Amino acid sequence: MLLISVIAWVPMVLIAILNGILREYWFAKNLNELQAHQLSTVTALVLLGIYIGTLMLLWKIDSSQQAFAVGLIWICLTIGFEFLFGHYVMRHPWNRLWSDYNIFAGRIWSAVLLWIGGAPFLFYRLYNQ
């Protein structure tokens, strides 16, 4: 299950990159930085929802526990990728990376992590009633 979870997670990186391109080249040109971040978070939720919903139709999860485990694996992979890639490849300082988690400053990126973590369970329950 771990290998399949990792393989299923990889397209989410591509979705996130495309969403980031959309934010930088469209949203940021028409909105302030916070608004662009917030709109980009919403588009990420929608795009990831479409992907995960479709994936869960094709990938037969055996139990709600397995769906929960998949979500947990995806959260760990996402946080690890975001911080390692963001800091060591993109050269963003740690405080900039942490700033996206400050909901009191209007940064709603945490919603994406909650969605990535909860969506496998949600779609499992939805498709297996």
Describe this entry's structure for a reader:
The chain is mainly α and 129 residues long. It has one domain (2-127). The chain has five helices and no strands. It has helices spanning 2-30, 33-58, 64-89, 94-99, 110-127. Helix 1 packs across helix 3 (64-89). The longest helix has 29 residues, at 2-30. The protein is globular, with a radius of gyration of 15 Å. The model has no long low-confidence stretch (mean pLDDT 95).
Write the layout of secondary structure elements.
Layout lengths: L1 H29 L2 H26 L5 H26 L4 H6 L10 H18 L2
The number of helical elements comes to: 5
The low-pLDDT segments are none
Q: What would you report as the Rg, rounded to the nearest angstrom? A: 15 Å
User: What is the N-to-C succession of helices and strands?
Assistant: HHHHH
**Strand runs, count:** 0
Count of discrete domains: 1
Percent of residues in helices comes to over 70%
Biggest beta-sheet profile: none
Distance between the termini: 22 Å
Anisotropy-based shape:
globular
Strand content: under 5%
Q: Assign the structural class, choosing from mainly alpha, mainly beta, alpha/beta, alpha+beta, or little secondary structure.
A: mainly alpha
* Mean pLDDT over the full residue set: 95
Keywords, separated by commas or semicolons:
mainly alpha, 5 helices, 129 residues, single chain, globular
Please summarize what this structure is:
The chain is mainly α and 129 residues long.
